[in-house]
């Protein structure tokens, strides 16, 4: 592979991953009705509004879901996969990219939750109870997933193991569902199931 292709791949992975992360976080923020006055929320809104506002005129929301954000993430994922295959020198038909993109977005969403859990667990050890806009936002995104697990857990005297249970569950889902699905859909090894992490 030429140095220009390597630089191109680096840029596609970095910029595509950042764009996908921003769009998926915007979707998740609206899904959990997070605090939109948080400075990070404001950044995500301002970064995505130029594309999402016109897109919402065409694609309305449904049942509290921001469908326009999902469609935008899907299109960006297809473009990223297309650029990766082009830079790698493979001529993969568009229909394969269209099929692989939802799996990539699913894995990205799982990684957001996994790394968010890890960040909150580490932050709870280092700086418990501290006010940080990023930590508050991560907790707002994670709470709907952690709350049901926390309710089922026995009382351990103030020790909350529910994030560990959720993290382990995410890893099991990746092993039991994502891996076999990637094999079934013939996703080649050079196509990352997630971009940016």
Automatic annotation (TrEMBL):
Name of the protein: YggT family protein
Entry's family note: Belongs to the YggT family.
Ranges that cross the membrane: 58-84, 96-116, 163-185
Coiled coil location: none
Pfam family, one: CCB3_YggT
InterPro entries to which the protein is assigned, alphabetical: CCB3/YggT (IPR003425)
Keywords in alphabetical order: Membrane, Transmembrane, Transmembrane helix
